[in-house]
Amino acid sequence: MDAIATRNLTKIYRGHIGRGAVKSLDNLSLAVAPNEVFGFLGRNGAGKTTAIKILCSLLRATEGEAFVMGQDTRRPATRKHIGYLPENPYFYEYLTPRETLDFYGELHGLTRAERAAEWEQLADLLDLRGIAGQRVRGFSKGMRQRLGFAVALVGDPEVLILDEPMSGLDPLGRRMIRELILLFHERGKTIFFSSHVLGDVEQICSRVGILVQGRLTTQGRLDELLNRRVNRVEIIAADLNEAAATVLAARSDGIRESEQGRHFFVKDMEAANALAADVLQSGGTLAEFTPIRESLEEYFVREQETVS
Amino acid sequence: MRVLAVARNTFREAVRDKVLYVLLLFAAAAIFGSKALGWISIGQDIKIVKDLSLAAVSVFGVLIAIFVGTNLVYKEIDKRTIYTILCRPMHRWEFILGKYLGLAALLALVTAVMVLVAAVYVVVLGGSLDATFFLAGLLIGWQLLLITALAVLLSALTSPILGAIIVFSTYVVGHATTIFTELPPHFDGTATKRVLQAVYYIIPNFSNFDIRAEAANGVPVAPGYILWAMAYGAVYTAVLLIIASLAFQDKDV
Amino acid sequence: MIARRLLTGVLAVAIGFACCVAAQRQMDASRKTGFDEELLYLPNEKLLNHFTGGLSSVVADLLWLQCIQYTAEEFKGEHKYVWLNHMIDTITRLDPYFVDVYRYGGVFLAALKADSDASIDLMKRGMIHNPGAWVLPYEMAMVYLLNRRENPGSPAQAAQFLQLAVATGTAPQYVIDLAANIARQHDLDEFERAMWEDMARNSSEKMLRELAQRKLHELAIADVCRQLGKAVQLYEERHHRLPDSLNDLVAGGIIERLPDDPLGGRFFLAGREVLNTTLQEEKLERRINRIRNGVNRYQARTGAWPPSLEAAVEGGDLVFVPPHPYPGRAWRYDPATGEVEGGSAPEL
After folding, report:
1. Looking at the complex, does the CB of residue B91 fall below 8 Å from at least one CB of chain A?
2. CB-based contact A121:A105 (threshold 8 Å)
3. The pLDDT of residue B151 is above 60
4. For a designed S-S bond to A254, which of A265, B191, C93, C234 qualifies (C-beta 3.0 to 4.6 A apart)?
5. Among A86, A106, A109, whose Cβ lies nearest the Cβ of B83?
6. Gap between the Cα atoms of C164 and C135, Å rounded
7. Residue contact A80–B6, C-beta within 8 A
8. Which chain A residue has its CA at the smallest distance from B8's CA?
9. How far apart are CA B86 and CA B83, in angstroms?
10. Nearest by CB to B213, which of C50, C56, C64?
């Protein structure tokens, strides 16, 4: 059973006077297996938030179906399995984190004892004890995000759905989120998050899906997707004499110099291996030998261009 | 219970709305200032104070219901606090009901306080109070519950300004509906008369809840009438809440 | 500097405000709407009830306050009370339980405007809506006793209404006593004087005290008239003829000097009687109102003005044609327009 599954999910916003209908999602069919970290990518306005809102039953799909843990998302009971963190979460400004989590616990149907226990757990996990008594009004983005995470975790749902969880955070904040995601992945949860910051996605996702103008153009394991091409290889050689360097430069696609030595860029592994052998033969040393696979960014840009 | 959690939260939030206190201040001013009008009467002070106080409770109660109520759900949607709530395992109607109960509790409290202040003021001025005065206050509160339901319904559907206009217009028209039943005789038997009769029953008839003339003049009111008025109010309120829940069920947030 | 900027700002605001005040005064001066014109805009009272948004009793209160002001102004000024009936009708339709309006309105109409018909109608309406209020039948009885003294059936009517008042169960002791003694109450003047004295002394409202004072003056003037009448008799006995004018009484040594009328009228001789213009004017007003009401009723009933005042009596719209208060004068009635004139006070 998939943790998350959609089948031909379509969302059309009706047109108003002076504006035509907008097709926000077009036959979206994706599947996320349990205990996966799935990165949902797309440009701004591609429809990521729309898909997520349908999963959380905040929007109604025009056509198609969506399931979480095998149950239809339209039923209220399904939402027991979902922990949702919206982009820029808002809370009641005048409550403290403790009161906030208490409120959401009550909405989940937890008893007072259970809510107290939840608080203990989540406060430690997300480092909320220091700010437990302050009102949300004065919180920074990082603090809000931590609280948002805690709220999403109330009730211990199996699936976490996060909408742009790292947007607006400083590097420390982003690392915190990354580590949290990995932590919950280890604890067996499924994590589905959307982002347009590809570097973050590359670091933690096992599978990705790319949404372009409402359509899912790609879906699969990261290493499979990117394995298809090895763009080039970068060889850094030191202690080379001038003559050898010139010869090798002629055989490369690109060269560069730095304190480490000379950088040679060649097309593929074969050429790279040959060049490396020549470096050693010429008496130089190999400082680095790096096959550069296509980065996710390059893949992403390529996808966009293909569609448009 | 989930409904009560939302209700409690709504109450806490509404209590923080500054508009509430400004309106209460004006209501107090109206109540205490009514004595000034009494000075230019020839002995009708107490009646005038009672009249103006009850009118102030009614008018300001409606204003509070409008200003705080029509904003309620809209603010949640606008500020997106609603996202994390609706994605919980709860029905949407529980949310609407909770919002309503929170606001209704606030209005009941506000009405009770205002009526009490007015009652104390009347006694301080040397007047006497009877059951009718408090029953008038009760019916005013009951009427406000109905209006609040309408405000919540509209706040789930439209913007606050449009909602406020609609609720206020309904309040005014709702007091004048008896005009549909007192048509001149040349309307008898026409289709227009039947249509207007239907309109009379559809628009909430707020003059049912108005026993302020009796209260200020010390005229007793039959308990049976009070019960019928409360029944009317309760059922109409329930109908409005059901419509609100249905409307909110599939609304895209 | 901040201080200078603040000063400039305050100065600018003060000047601006002064300009606004000046403009306001200009507008107020050029737009002085008289009180009467306002009332012209009072809509049909039935509609008013529907469209006051549930504030009908508050509107009734405000209109009643205006009515009091209006009455007070008329009392000090013209004594016409043109709009009184309309205002009271409107108020009582908006708030039918407002007993004081029926009561005081009735008193104003009967005692000030001398329109006892309207007063009685009003209080009857009040009694229908407020059957438990003792003041209304009580005031009705007073109207019959005091303002309709000339009618033969009045004491009987008054007695009936007093019984009604007692029957409400809430009437105070003096009303019960009065009802019991009414059959024996011959000296209505004494009774009336006592009533007005009570109001002049004990009422907490200035306006009512002033009204009572005026009524007491009127009673005093009537007394003076009677005294002067005795003086005329004395003169006739002494001089074997009637005096030509009141000055003869002074010259003849019967009285020291002619008394003054505190209300600005004149005493004059009419045959054997001494009359006073203030009192006679009041009688004139009252009686002419009765006649006018009768004529209007005839017109409403048949659609045409009665050919004569007697025709109105025959038609049942007027009980009888009251005599003209000034001796030797008659009512002038124009059947074409329905207008009744009484003429002015004699030159004597």
Report:
1. yes
2. no
3. yes
4. A265
5. A86
6. 10
7. no
8. A103
9. 6
10. C56
A113 secondary structure, DSSP code: H
Write the CB contacts of C129 (distance below 8 Å, at least 6 apart in sequence). Answer: C96, C97
Interface test with B, best of C55, C62, C103 (most B CBs within 10 A): C55
- The full length of chain A comes to 308
The C-alpha angle with vertex C227 and arms to C224 and C232, in degrees rounded to 5, equals 125
Judging contacts by C-beta atoms under 8 Å, the chain B residues touching residue C65 are: 37, 40-41, 48
Q: Which of B80, B84, B85, B86 best probes binding to A when mutated, by most A CB atoms within 10 angstroms?
A: B84
Please, are residues C76 and B70 in contact by the beta-carbon 8 Å criterion?
A: no
CA pseudo-torsion sign C300, C304, C309, C310: negative
Q: Do C54 and B217 touch (CB under 8 A)?
A: no
A-B C-beta contacts closer than 8 Å: 68
> Which residue of B37, B39, B41 to mutate against C (max C Cβ within 10 Å)?
B41
Work out the burial of residue B74: count CB atoms within 10 Å of its CB; fewer than 13 is exposed, 13-18 middle, 19 or more buried. buried
Q: Is the dihedral of CA A120, A125, A127, A128 positive or negative?
A: negative
CA angle, C187 as apex, C186 and C189 as ends, to 5°? Answer: 140
Cα B174 to Cα A68: distance, rounded to the nearest angstrom: 48
User: In degrees to the nearest 10, what's the CA dihedral of B21, B22, B23, B29?
Assistant: 110
Closest by CA position to C253, among listed C227, C230, C235: C235
pLDDT tens for chain A, residues 1 to 308: 888 888 888 888 887 777 778 888 888 888 888 998 999 888 887 888 889 999 998 888 888 899 999 888 888 888 889 999 988 888 888 888 888 899 998 888 888 898 899 888 888 888 888 888 888 888 888 888 888 989 999 988 999 999 988 888 888 888 888 888 999 999 999 999 998 777 778 888 888 888 888 888 888 887 777 665 667 888 888 888 888 888 888 888 888 888 888 888 888 888 888 888 888 888 888 888 887 777 777 777 777 777 66
- Measured between alpha carbons, how far is B28 from B25 in angstroms, rounded to an integer? 5
At C135-177, the pLDDT tens digits run 898 888 888 888 777 777 777 788 888 888 888 888 888 788 7
Once rounded to an integer, what is the mean pLDDT over residues C101-116?
Answer: 86
The Cα of A183 is separated from the nearest Cα of chain B by a number of Å equal to 22
CA A146, CA A166: separation in Å to the nearest integer? 11
Question: In Å, how far is A216's CA from the nearest CA of chain B?
Answer: 23
For chains A and C, having 3+ Cβ pairs within 8 Å is answered: no
CA angle (C140, C143, C146) in 5-degree steps: 145
Which ipTM was obtained for this model?
0.79
* Lookup: tokens for A209: 């899906």
Residue pair A232/A90 in contact by the 8 Å Cβ criterion? no
Give chain B positions within 8 Å (CB) of A86: 80, 83-84
Q: Residues in chain C, how many?
A: 348
